[in-house]
Amino acid sequence: MADWTQHPHRRLNPLTREWVLVSPHRAQRPWQGQVEREAQPAAMEYDPKCYLCPGNSRSGGTRNVAYAGTLVFDNDFATLTAATPEFAHNESGLLVAQSERGSCRVVCFSPRHDLTLARMAAAEIRAVIDTWAKQYIELGAMPHIGYVQIFENRGEMMGCSNAHPHGQIWASQRMPHEVAKEDRAQIEYREARGSCLLCDYLALERRTGERVVCENEFFAALVPFWAIWPFEILLVSRGHRSGIDQFDAVERNAMAALLKEITTRYDNLFECSFPYSMGFHQRPAGGASHEAWHFHAHFYPPLLRSATVRKFMVGYELLCQPQRDITAESAAARLREVAAKHYLD
Ligand code: H2U
Ligand code: ZN
């Protein structure tokens, strides 16, 4: 067995069929570059200037209702719209364009401006999961929608515009290419082996436990073998489910508990409000069963060695392939070591 704790090597992501270069010997290199502002949770329960707080007005003048649980509204600056006219352009196969329709929504997780998923009660996160499932069904049933992407950008470092706990949903006419890669890989794996790629992968990971961060009866969170971001996490349902709409009440509660634990462990790692982009990958819209699809979430957090030093995707990574210094195994061990109880609670 090769020693991948010592020597440079590359690892394959079977979901995208792309490689990541791992250079474990390089983790000790000095850092004299950019230092980020350390993120801490917002201090105010209600911010009169926040466009997501209950009762406040948004751009364009709409006023948020005095909501108590979650709030969903159409994005006032939607990337995609249902009204876009159909057109296509192709010049010599070199200048190619297609119109793209869609719908974009914003989901507030809580009326409390100062909370994050990590500091919300599991029952409150359960309400967010119910909202996500309802939106997935509703948007996915629209004739102009082919794929529904639910995601959360957390923290200024990830380009989040507001500390108020919220996520977004971008539903598009076609499958975006990151999803299309996973679609292909899962279908072809199933055709070749007669089983599910992520069911098989999860069984393999649970045999050693080396990269598993935490799990319960229905979900498991692990640093995938092929992780790109330092503390990347893949959240996988233990049962073969293709979408968030297929989880029953017990499974949704289990998912809420694990979302809370993942985000809590993240915050505890550097005692800050840990930034990340996270989102669900699930079966495309349109009513077909998409048997090969296995529901999962990706957490892509940028922090590398402290609350103020992040990983950059530049140079070689933009030109060639992603690269990481700390191994997935050591990242998982560090996330297991920190407490499951939030440092501020
Ligand atoms: P981010 O923080 O992830 O950028 O999400 C905030 C979204 O909220 C963003 O997409 C929308 C922005 O377009 N928004 C509104 O819909 N109305 C507003 O009044 C401000 C921001
Ligand atoms: Zn707010």
Q: What is the highest CATH level, the class?
A: Alpha Beta
Could you tell me the mean pLDDT?
95
Order of adjacent strands in the largest pleated sheet? 3-6-8-7-12-13-11-10-9
- What is the count of structural domains? 1
Strand content: 15-25%
Question: Uncertain spans, ≥5 residues at pLDDT below 50?
Answer: none
CATH topology: HIT family, subunit A
- Beginning-to-end CA distance, first to last residue: 43 Å
Structure description:
- The chain has helices spanning 122-140, 177-193, 197-208, 249-270, 316-319, 328-337, and strands at residues 9-13, 18-22, 71-74, 88-91, 95-98, 102-108, 147-154, 166-172, 212-215, 219-222, 233-237, 276-281, 296-300, 323-324.
- It is of the alpha+beta class and 345 residues long.
- It has a single domain (39-337), classed as 2-Layer Sandwich (HIT family, subunit A), CATH 3.30.428.
- It has a 9-stranded antiparallel beta sheet with strand order 3-6-8-7-12-13-11-10-9, with helices on both faces. A 3-stranded mixed beta sheet has the order 1-2-14, with no helix packed on it.
- The radius of gyration is 20 Å and the shape is globular.
- The structure holds 5,6-dihydrouridine-5'-monophosphate and zinc ion.
- The site of zinc ion (ZN) has 6 residues, from loops.
- 5,6-dihydrouridine-5'-monophosphate binds at residues 51, 58-59, 75-77, 106, 153, 160-162, 168.
